[in-house]
Design a protein that fits this description.
Layout (H helix, E strand, L loop, with lengths): L1 H11 L1 H22 L7 H4 L4 H48 L4 E5 L5 E4 L1 H6 L13 H10 L7 H8 L5 E5 L3 E9 L5 E7 L1 H23 L3 E6 L5 E4 L1 H7 L3 H4 L10 H16 L4 E10 L2 E13 L5 E10 L6 H17 L4 E6 L5 E4 L4 H4 L3 H4 L4 H4 L2 H17 L3 E9 L2 E13 L5 E10 L1 H15 L9 H15 L6 E9 L1 H8 L1 H19 L4 E3 L4 E7 L4 H15 L2 E3 L2 E3 L2 E9 L6 H18 L4 E3 L6 H19 L2 E10 L9 E12 L3 E3 L1 H11 L1 H18 L6 E5 L2 H5 L3 H12 L6 E5 L2 H5 L1 H13 L3 E7 L5 H7 L4 E4 L1 H4 L6 H16 L3 E4 L5 H9 L4 E3 L13 H4 L2 H10 L1
Parallel strand pairs: 21-22, 24-26, 26-27, 27-28, 28-29, 29-30, 30-31
Antiparallel strand pairs: 1-2, 1-5, 3-4, 4-5, 6-7, 6-10, 8-9, 9-10, 11-12, 11-15, 13-14, 14-15, 16-18, 16-21, 17-18, 19-20, 23-24, 23-31, 24-25
Length: about 900
Amino acid sequence: MAGRKVQAGGKNWIPARAVLCLIAAVAPCAAARAGTGAFAAPSSYLGSLDPGVVWELLIGSVVVASFFGAVGLWILSALRKAKRAQLRRNAFVSSALNHLNQGVVMTDAQERIVFCNDRYLDIYGLSRADIRRNMTGVELLELRRDRGVLDLSAEDFFARAAAPDGLVTELPGGRSVLVKYFPLPNGGSVATHLDCTDQRKLSRKLASTTQFLESVLDNVPVCVAAKNIEDGRYIFANRAFERFSRFSRDHIVGRRADEIFRPETAASIDTADRAALNAAEGYHRSEFFVERGSDKRILASNRVIARNEAGEPEFLIALFEDVTDRRSLSRELENNKKFLELVVDNIPVSLIVQRVSDGRYLLANRSAETILNRRREDAAGLTASDIFNAREAKLIIARDEAAIRKRSMIAEEHPISTKDGLRLFLTRRMTVLDDVGEPQYLIKTHEDVTDRRQTESRMAHMAYHDGLTDLPNRAAFLQALTQMIEACDGTDEEFAVLCVDLDGLKEINDVYGHAMGDKVLIEVAQRLQTVARGGVVARLSGDEFGLIIDGKQPAAGIALAEQAAEALGQDFLIDGKSVRTGLTTGIAVFPDNGSDAASLLANSGAALFRAKAKSRGTISIFEPEMDQQIRDRRVLHQELSVAIKNGELSLYYQPQAAAGGSVAASRIIGFEALARWHHPVRGFVPPGDFIPLAEESGLIVEMGEWILREACREAASWAIPLQVAVNLSPAQFTHGDLVGLVHSILLETGLTPDRLELEITEGVLIEDFDRGLSLLRRLKALGVRISMDDFGSGYSSLSYLQAFPFDKIKIDRAFVINLGRNPQSAAIVRAVIDLGHGLEMSIVAEGVETEAQLGFLAEEGCDAVQGYLIGRPAPIGQFAGLVGGDQLAETVRRAG
């Protein structure tokens, strides 16, 4: 220490030494010059000053200037050294922090970012250029939100990250990041970001494994107990132990044997424990007597000592069973064998174990007999070549060898011939290695997925086909039109699009009922397919069909329309009743009447509208003057815009009820808000007219905001906190800040988020899947419920259920109205209910109009229903009693 002080002192004396040296060099010269008058200045030049004084002043000035110069050089050198040391320290700290395995962000007292390491940028996919100078922590969070790697507000982020356990955020791709936020005494902060994806997976896997092992031990018929060796207290006891000892697990765990059993039994247990502890191999098997009630039982006990990392005994594990009535070792082994066979036989999949060396089957459970086409006892010792035909055996052996080479699990689906025919199985193969790491056994499980895949195929078919007639639906028809246009574009080929409307269907429904009408529609579909001779025929709506015909136009289109009218003009004999219908047809021709699918279909619809206006049963070809209908729609669009601004719209509410066996047993749980328009001149405008117009024109965004705000305001006033459901249009997801709008409306109206249910159709996810999914997740983060509307009417519903955890699924009314008439509809509804419950989503059925439909849905476990049977849409005043508005109900009663 003294040496360092001397050294430091020496460094401080450097400027002084320089001055002394300079004085020593100059002083002799000055003295010499002062001693001789050779250089004395003439008195006439210096006045009365002594020349010696002048020289002394000059020399002193030089000395002083040299001193200050030396001091300045020393200070400059010291500053440069300090700066280089600071730079080295900064580089060291920055390098150290940049090599951490977790992201670090530091801010100063003004919340400006002063440091952000490379790991943070890597975790969130940012670059160093994204971190602007003087950027604040809140701005960095906004940047992450814009990049889609943050789905909560800055306030929530800081509040939750500052908690002791930190905040776990989920990133795209299934990654998880643990964030911890630490405020600093100087007003700044430090936040750490650790990618905990693997840890969370491992934690979940460990928890699952622990639960599995505990479940296995609980279901093992042998008594299992574990205790601490240090204090002899039990830390685990399985159900078999509980049953044998007749004590509950809570009574056993935490106590010693002498606190539970009688002294003789406790002494026997203590003796067995000490024998296991003294055994060199840490294992002890014995039999001893215990008292249980008034009788004595003989227990066969196996005790194992579990040691810690240091090799010291820590736990004692006891497995024992009552062998009073069976002392024979062979009988004990037989019972163990039966137990294992029972476990294997009750596995709900086919299980087969074969030896790798020769491919012979060693073990198979009862379920595997379907695969093997024989009793499992007869399959033991055989190979795949002995059991299956040559072609199947070759394929099976090749797949077995591939699994053995890979030495890990391989899963695939392939057909297998069984006694019930060719079935589709999901086969998993896992190789078991021996002690030296060589393949020893191959375990194969086979799960019959035939019915599941058929159901998925049916539901995929439903997306493009009408549930009643099995014809292609509107979406499939538009796809066919697009393909036809692409094939004919640039050529001289022509084709016609026919929109045909079934005449008289309403009368058939009114006279004979909807069941008869459905049968007529099925027969109409078959006759149209016959007339079209394999061409495209689709059901566009309730009684409207579409056809495509190529050839010289419009002659080919007119000929097809006449043939279809002739085919449908013949009487339908259904259920002993003869009914008659007809066709009205509108025709549009490609390319004269449109160059895209939507235009052709719209123009054929306009021609159909003109044909209906003329006379039922006529054929009309699109003409340019039919654009008047389009102009009329524009007028209606303008009037709708004015109606939204002038408050001409109102909300009706249709009740939703928990599905009971009857209407009386179905408790109202909420309402769906529905827009209604009463035009001052036109009168009541059907929603089917103005809602599609609002969707096409973009007015639905403004209208949707009004509907959402009005529904939330009304629901917030209800004394009984029932749910309120509001439909969201796909357009609302692509215009403006929908999440911010919902949040602000909830704050404005005071409605709690859990009472608001937002209904969407799959159109929200079709146009921009990633953006739609992100918005849905952010909406759900607000606390509102998300429901998929019209499930089954689209073509991607199943994939969307896999991508987003919806709270509710609404079964499309097209399936509900056919319950009791069409067995396929019942099967589909049942499958959707099972699917929803399997995904932990509640199910709502729309369009319930009969007690029979309600009874079927309640019996199948449907959670809720909605339809005319429960209640028609009406102003909320008519439901005042249901929402707790007694005063409002009295006002309505008096006014009515």
